[in-house]
């Protein structure tokens, strides 16, 4: 039986995502059309930090009849993620991501009884993003905000493949010819298995593919 302690957190992040999507959509609609070169897509590689519930703490350990004095975890669990996007319109992109992180747990009190649960995810969905805008007048550096909603599957060392949802928001900013991404997601697997629902932070580097010609031209601009 799943715990409902994270319900309030999921509610607030859902409201935040809806608000950001509304802001992005309104700003995109208010901007006059321009003829410019757009990137056909981008790819991001990053490090993730997540802190799912400790299965060696009550009530999870009692529900699964596991060792119940804690896994000994003192830091968030690290992982890696690789994401890609294909732009299909002004600020709209189809996105996909593959990720993995190590979830630690114990079968007993000894350090030799520590186990590693490899958690793998494969998700895809849509992303809405603002345009890059300068945040310092005397600098060419710029930033943009984005929100995305993705779904897919998760499978682990101890659990079979199951569906999952992963909404998130983030910011990308340019710094010395690089694009740095900071992203916050809520990873929520569905169905039977260990409750690995968790907030996740991704810090990574994004590479934008360049196009030699405009990809999207309005009728007014075509004449």
The helix count comes to 3
Shape: elongated
CATH topology of the domain at 7-26 and 41-53 and 76-104 and 120-209: Porin
As laid out across the biggest beta sheet, the strand order is 1-2-3-4-6-7-8-9
Number of E-type strands? 9
Structural class: mainly beta
Summarize the biggest pleated sheet: 8 strands, antiparallel, barrel
Helix content: 10-25%
Q: What Rg do the Cα atoms give?
A: 20 Å
> What oligomeric arrangement do these chains adopt?
single chain
Mean pLDDT: 81
Beta percentage is over 45%
Order of helical and strand elements: HEHEEEEEEEEH
Name of the CATH architecture of the domain at 7-26 and 41-53 and 76-104 and 120-209: Beta Barrel
């Amino acid at each position: 039986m799943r715990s409902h302690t994270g319900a309030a957190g999921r509610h607030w992040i859902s409201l935040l995502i809806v608000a950001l999507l509304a802001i992005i959509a309104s700003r995109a609609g208010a901007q006059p059309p321009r003829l410019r070169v757009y990137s056909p897509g981008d790819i991001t590689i990053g490090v993730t930090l997540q802190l799912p519930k400790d299965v060696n703490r009550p009530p999870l350990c009692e529900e699964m009849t596991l060792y119940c004095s804690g896994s000994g975890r003192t830091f968030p669990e690290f992982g890696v993620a690789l994401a890609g996007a294909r732009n299909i319109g002004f600020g709209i992109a189809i996105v996909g991501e593959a990720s993995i992180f190590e979830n630690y747990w114990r079968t007993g009190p000894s350090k030799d009884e520590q186990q590693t649960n490899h958690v793998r995810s494969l998700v895809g969905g849509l992303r809405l993003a603002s345009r890059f805008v300068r945040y310092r007048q005397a600098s060419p550096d710029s930033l943009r905000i984005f929100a995305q909603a993705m779904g897919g599957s998760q499978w682990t060392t101890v659990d079979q493949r199951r569906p999952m949802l992963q909404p998130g928001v983030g910011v990308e900013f340019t710094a010395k010819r690089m694009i740095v991404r900071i992203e916050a997601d809520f990873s929520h697997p569905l169905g039977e298995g260990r409750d690995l629902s968790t907030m996740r932070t991704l810090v990574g580097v994004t590479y934008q593919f360049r196009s030699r010609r405009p990809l999207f031209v309005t009728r007014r601009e075509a004449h």
